[in-house]
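Changelog note: in this version the structure field was regenerated for every chain. One regenerated record is shown below for reference.
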Amino acid sequence: MANTADISRGLIIKLDGSLYSVVDFGENKTARAAAKVWAKLKGVDNNRSIEKTWNSGDNIFPVRVERKGYQFIYKDDSGYNFMDTETFEQIALQENLVDAPQFLKDGQEVTVLMNTETDTPMGVELPDKIVLKVTYSEPGMKGDTATRTLKPAKVETGATVNVPLFVNEGELIRINTKTGEYVERVKE
């Protein structure tokens, strides 16, 4: 049995019959009252985001999760199709189970979270940072690099990312998949 001291980011817990992933958490201590533990939770099997508060030491019910390597193959009417890199079995998942579907490209390595109790997929995580090619961007003005001005750029997956003015069409850039922000330019 686990209690509130075991809460960490990414932990998946069962709460009121639904599964939630811990996005953020903290502790509130006051002089007179008992400490409280709070958590921001994102629904794994639903689209809800909630905040929950427990008394310090209360029991929680974590779900055992296994992370398996999969490869994105294609998208069709059944959803996003992934292939297990070890057994070559294929699964199709809906868009709401994929962390950042706008950054998925064919052959992309991802991690699928599997519920070990029911052996069902609960979600897909992309790597924290990925490299994509800029397919369209307005040219920047020469010498206009003094300010942190951003411009929109379309990447090979069709997503639009704000990039600095010096980034041009055809260049490779690293993107943070959690925030959708430009990180750096990558040399080929």
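Spot check on this record: The chain has a mean pLDDT of 88. Residues 2-60 form a domain with the SH3 type barrels. fold (CATH 2.30.30.30).
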